[in-house]
Amino acid sequence: MLKRRNYHIGDKESCVLCTTQEEETIYHLIFNCPFSQVWWAKIGISYNSNISRIEATIRAKEVYSGRLFFEIFTITAWNIWKERNNFIFNQINPTYNAWLERSKSDLSCLRYRVSTDLSDYITSLVNNL
Ligand SMILES: [Zn+2]
Fold it and tell me: What pairs with residue 23 in β-bridges?
């Protein structure tokens, strides 16, 4: 967004999560970045990056074997974004463990918003991450 508004952002336009020097688009950061792909794999969501985002999301939901796809999808993407922001604004290097612990914490909070059977499912999911 800053680039589109003609802000000079220097080297900061490349992805900060990986060393590929890819431009930091939301698509790269959330879906194509090698760092993010490890997290998607860990959560059990596979994403086909060769098709449109909407189509890829629909297909990912179709093949996802777990429950609460949208909630888990959102928490995963949100925590990828938070890893990126921690680096940009707090100079904290992104790590798999930081993402994992934050995701587990957010998933645990989700237990209070769902029915008992889904709460048990989330507990099991968190314990197996
Ligand atoms: Zn990247």
Answer: 14
| C-beta separation of 47 from 61 below 8 A | no
Neighbours of ion ligand 1 (CB under 5 A): 15, 17-18, 33
* Domain with 45 in it: 11-127
Task: Give me the number of domains the chain comprises.
Answer: 1
Q: What is the pLDDT along the chain (129 residues), one digit of tens a residue?
A: 666 676 665 555 789 898 788 888 888 999 889 999 999 999 999 888 788 888 989 999 999 988 999 999 999 999 999 999 999 889 999 999 999 999 999 999 999 999 999 999 999 999 998
Domain assignment present for residue 4? The answer is: no
Distance 107 CA to ligand 1 centre (A): 24
Asked, for residue 101, whether it belongs to a domain, the answer is: yes
